[in-house]
Amino acid sequence: MIRFDQVSKRYGKQTALNQVSFTLPEGDMAFLTGHSGAGKTSILRLILCQEKANAGQVFLGNRSITHIKKRQVPLLRRQLGFIAQEANLLEDQTVFQNVALPLIIDRWHSNDLSGRTLAALDKVQLRHKANCKPHELSGGEQQRINIARAIVHKPAILLADEPTGNLDPELAKDILALFDELNRCGMTILIASHALDLIATLPHRILTLSHGQLVGDHA
Amino acid sequence: MSKPTRRQASYLSMHARSFIRSLGDLTRQPIGNAMTILVIAIAIVLPALFYFVGMNVKAVADRWHDQPQISLYLTNHTNDEQARQLTEALQKRDLVASVIYISPDQGWEALDQVLHLKTLKEQLGTNPLPGIIRVTPRWPGPTPEALKKLTDQLGDLSHVQDAELDVGWVKRLYYILNIAQRLLIGVGCLFALAVVLIIANTIRLSISKHEREMAILTLLGASKSFIVRPFLYRGFVYGLLGGVLARVALWALSNWLSEPVQQLSATYLSQFSLHELDALASAILIVGSGLLGWVGAKLATSTQIAKHL
User: Between A and B, how many CB-CB pairs are < 8 A?
Assistant: First the structure.
């Protein structure tokens, strides 16, 4: 579960979020939408503890992460999955090594790691690309690898920031269908996106932000 | 020893992965890294060379030290029997390694072999040389001050007219070696600092090239130690390889100098040859260089990586 309780975030004099409150129950999927600068990314950054709220509380499950200690942040992030607009893959490593990274970070034994990584690659249907380097993949494939990396450790919550931003409409549909499938498996998913036409095709909740305020919450 | 648990095994494999990764990074930019390692090797070889020279000078000095002698000139009326009794008494002293008595006749004979003084003895009618007892103190052991004290004590013995020790050169050598030792430590520290700074700067540049990678790892939940580890290994490998190169350079230099040193030594009727660094000193040089690299990397990461986390 993700819960924002009267959360405000300011960068200098600019207000990115103004008393935003919402709850995303466990196993739900929602889209955060709004114009550029509306505050979508700020919400994700607060959940990832890349930023701290100036006011209000952010909860993951029943735990407030608003004042989390710096040394606890890596442990928290290991429980989340995050997908950025850019694929953000390590160019000098193979697809397999990229996908396995969260497990390596979490000190998984190599025997378990291998099976779990291949399963994640199966999920995005790119097992056959396991030994390729990222530059050998298309943009859509790179983003699917990015998703595989985000889900390989089976996080309870998956966050995505404009995951279809660089993809053509057909590929974007495929990616969103993949998110839908992951959600049906029980994963809580929050996606920041301004692709309203695509979002509208899926039967999920839409949280609309404008100038840092939550102005719409449609199921 | 108990078998490592899966968690421990994965921890070790994580270290192995970081180490292999750091080696891989080195091979990716072979020329730049080779130049860095060469610079490190030069910085290491210079103090090592100081040590090497110091070690060999000490070895030469120790050979000279084997015979610092005290000459006891006996009074003219001391007969051979009294001189031999004195020789035996001196032999029993703690600080004395050996004692040789040279009678006036033996002394004249030795002098005559060099200067051909037969006619002079005929003219003088008597041998003017005193009996001499040559005392060799134990060495190394007594300081120049202790040697001086021993000489004074021996000079006060009955039948001894005069006691002489050329402490000047002993003292000078002793102090020169002292200065050389301090110089070695000072220069060694400076060059060690240079190695640390060279590696710190190299790692700092490397960190700036890996900013994107660090940002990705941070978002995936990597701890600071996970991110820092490959850089620390890299610094260690830089230092280690620099140390190995320095050791090889030192070996080559010592081989190159070996023959002329032996030729020079032969002119002094000595069989002195250059002393090589032994296995322990070599290991200290190489591992120590690796540790300096680690310190340099630690310095760079503690200042550079904190701002990415």
Answer: 57
Are B145 and B223 in a shared domain? no
Tally the domains of chain B. 2
The secondary structure of residue B63, as a DSSP letter, is H
CA distance B274 to chain A (A): 49
* End residue of a domain, out of B167, B192, B222: B167
Strand locations in chain B (E): 70-74, 96-102, 132-137, 160-165
Can you read off the two tokens belonging to residue A134? 């990222």
| 3 state SS of B82 | helix
CA distance linking residue A103 with residue A86, whole number of Å: 21
**What are A's interface residues with B at a Cβ cutoff of 8 A?**
48, 50, 70, 74-80, 82, 84, 88-90, 92, 101-102, 104-110, 149
Tell me whether B13 touches chain A (CB under 8 Å): yes
Tell the residue number behind the tokens 């190394």, with chain if given: B140
pLDDT digits (tens, 9 = 90+) for B80-128: 889 999 999 888 888 788 888 988 888 888 777 766 666 776 777 778 8
Domains of chain A (ranges plus CATH)? 1-79+157-219 (3.40.50.300), 88-155 (no CATH)
Instruction: Tell me which chain B residues have a C-beta less than 8 angstroms from the C-beta of A102.
Output: 220-221
Domain that includes residue B203, residue range: 17-64+172-308
- How many residues does the structure list for chain A? 219
State whether B221 and A105 contact (CB < 8 Å): yes
Termini Cα distance of chain B: 38
Does some domain include residue B9? no
B11 within some domain: no
CA distance linking residue B49 with residue B180, whole number of Å = 12
Cβ B244 vs Cβ B283: under 8 Å: no
- What are the tens digits of pLDDT across the range A121-155? 998 889 999 999 999 998 889 988 999 999 999 99
Q: Please give the order of strands across the beta sheet that includes A213-218.
A: A80-83, A157-161, A188-192, A29-33, A205-210, A213-218
B233/chain A closest Cα distance in angstroms: 17
3-state helix, strand, coil in chain A (%, to 5): 35, 25, 35
